[in-house]
Amino acid sequence: MEKSSPMGNMEMGETASQSRSLESQFKCSESNDPQDPKNWSNARKTLLFMSLMSSSLLADGAMVWGSTLITQQAMDWNISITHSATSMNYGILLQGFGGIFVVPLIEAYGRLPMWLWPQVLTMFMVLGATLSTSYSAFTVFRSLQGLFGTVPQVIGLPIIHDMYTPAEWPRMINIWGTTFLVGPFLGPAIAGYVGAGTDWRISFGVLTAIYGASTVAVVLFGRETYYTPHRPGPAPSRVALCFGIGNTQLPKRATLWYWCRMVVIYVFKFPLLMTGLAILVTFTWPIGITTTIDTFLHSPPYLFDTIQASSMRFAGVIGALCGWAFGFFFNKWIYRHHRTHWRTEYRLHGVWIPIGSMAAGLLTYGLTMNFHKHWIGIAFGWILVNIGMVATIVAISAYALEKYPGQATCVSAILNMWRTCGGFAVGYFQPAWIARNGLGLVFGIQAIVVCVAIVLTITPVLLWTRSRQPSGSV
């Protein structure tokens, strides 16, 4: 499918996805041009996609890398553990705004430069945090890390849109989305293992080296995926593409202004607004667990050491992978079941079972700790919560890209904004809420909130879409 231009019809993707099946979209996007990313070799696509996954894994994984090291940092800077934990909060918030800011730049200057250079800047921000000698300086570098490091979470959807056919989108979104949703659990686990044997600075030094390796992969295997059919003249050199020269051949000022307006318009589009609110709620509680669990595991009756607490993070990883598996099979099943009369909104039915899993997980997690039961209950509850989080976000992301294929960058940034806003907010109110009302009540209320929120956000989208269907259509 051709890209939309600043002068194009902004509803093109919406009407196309409503009126054509995935096969018909695929036929419309076929071309024999070897420059078309859809026609690249499998090896080139795979190497580029693996580089993208490494960047995406680090986006959230590196942002919460220090969540298992906050006690060491508090002692180093002579501040409270609660205060030390807030060093991540502004970075999480800026992940959302950074994703929004980069949308016009991605569309005006191409995917590659907006992927490469923020990756380089993020690597240096992590290095700056490693070398910081005060809490204030460390927090500044961590905040800037969040601002620049969020780009892979935005640029992934447009790259998938450019490089794969519509029939392949759900599967590739499932794989890519799981990497940055596994990151918040895998990153702190690795950080804790390294920090237990050395100190937090060495752990952040290891993170800097990992960022360096990912950056090298982007340099070696990253390619510009923005495709202009029947492009006149020779293709720009790879060096020029890295600096945004000749990537899109669009008028820069008009394109920047157009996409600034598009971001504002699409934030308030009813389907995206409602599904974005659904993501905000479903992401808030899992991040609340991620940022507070160490406090409970190090306290009686569990008294975990750093290695044990870090190992508990793999419950989150297992849950995320199970959520990926559910999304993978559900997307195949729902399309096969409705392929004759396909509608994009069928993707949204992938949220109902996962939300039940999340509610059950929140109850299991909260009640286990409230009554001081065995830690296996904590791990099992966390697995159920993450199944719900990953499968829900994957279902909504697949729906949004398929509904608005010409606005993949914009849609990705908006969903990322809602996700990170939820992650930012929970760190400020959940600890006090737990202290005031207790773990059992708090997580019980969270289970109710997530179920009610999903019903109140997803159901109206399904009904709204049905009401807009032409009379007599399926």
Describe what is shown at a glance.
This protein is mainly α and 474 residues long. The protein has helices at 12-19, 22-29, 42-61, 70-77, 81-85, 89-109, 111-130, 135-149, 151-163, 169-197, 200-221, 238-242, 252-267, 270-297, 306-338, 352-370, 375-403, 408-437, 439-468. Helix 6 (89-109) crosses helix 13 (252-267), helix 7 (111-130) runs antiparallel to helix 9 and helix 16 packs antiparallel against helix 17.
Structural summary, described in words:
With about 475 residues, this protein is mainly alpha-helical. The protein has a single domain, classed as Up-down Bundle (Growth Hormone, Chain: A). The protein has 19 helices and no strands. Helix 7 (about 110-130) packs antiparallel against helix 11. The two termini are about 25 Å apart.
Any guess at the CATH architecture? Up-down Bundle
Question: Please, how many domains?
Answer: 1
CATH superfamily: MFS general substrate transporter like domains
The tally of strands reads: 0
Main sheet summary: none
Structural class: mainly alpha
CATH class: Mainly Alpha
Radius of gyration: 22 Å
- Give the fraction of residues assigned to helices: over 70%
Low-confidence stretches: 1-28
Mean pLDDT: 86
